[in-house]
TrEMBL record:
This is PIEZ2 protein. Signal peptide: none annotated. GO terms for molecular function: mechanosensitive monoatomic ion channel activity. Keywords: Membrane, Transmembrane, Transmembrane helix. It comes from the Eukaryota. PANTHER family: PIEZO-TYPE MECHANOSENSITIVE ION CHANNEL COMPONENT, PIEZO-TYPE MECHANOSENSITIVE ION CHANNEL HOMOLOG. The chain crosses the membrane at residues 12-36, 48-67, 120-141. GO terms for cellular component: membrane. InterPro entries: Piezo (IPR027272).
């Protein structure tokens, strides 16, 4: 149970889940960006960021599911944008006509991150993946805490992967050199 190894795996999973959410650029996903931008440089904020992201993911899933109700009709609050005149913009008229903004009604809920979609599971896939990763992270941390408490172990002092490798072991061989640089990269990362 090396805390450094599991932390690096979980950090990688968080980065992957955030990249999945980057495919859906919206106001909803901005909370994830802010939470992890503050949590990555400061280790004391990581559990808080993980909790915030878990709750926020649940809120997003519920909002997306409620938006699928038949009583919500996006056409009632969608608006049509009028094409600007030739003297009002420097963009070609042909480019403006092909723009999503002027091709039909614009649903403002899409800016927030809501849209009507079928099938719903495909639409919620990234959020459910994020929730599964966050649940996996909590499970690992709780299991580590329980294991250390049961076996009277202390939390490792260094936040590295190989706790017994130091600068003095750098010239002891290729394997120790690689371990040292993995620790150094992990420490800097």
């Amino acid at each position: 149970y090396r805390k450094g190894w599991t932390f690096s795996v979980l950090l990688l999973l968080h980065v992957i889940s955030i990249l999945f959410l980057c495919f859906q650029v919206s106001l909803f996903n901005f909370v994830f960006l802010i939470a992890w931008a503050l949590a990555l440089p400061y280790a004391q904020f990581r559990p808080l960021a993980s909790s915030i992201c878990t709750v926020w993911t649940c809120v997003i899933i519920v909002c997306k599911m409620l938006y699928q109700l038949t009583s919500i009709d996006p056409s009632t609050f969608s608006s049509n944008c009028t094409l600007p005149g030739e003297n009002e913009t420097k963009v070609n008229l042909e480019e403006l006509k092909t723009s999503v903004l002027y091709s039909g009604p614009v649903d403002p809920a899409e800016w927030v991150g809501l849209r009507k979609s079928y099938p719903l599971l495909v639409y919620l896939r990234n959020n459910l993946l994020m929730l599964a990763i966050l649940a996996f992270e909590v499970t690992i941390y709780r299991h580590q805490e329980y294991y250390r408490c049961r076996n009277n172990l202390t939390v490792p002092v260094t936040k590295t992967i190989f706790h017994d490798i130091t600068r003095a072991h750098l010239d002891d061989g290729l394997v120790n050199c690689v371990k040292y640089f993995i620790n150094y990269f992990f420490y800097k990362f």
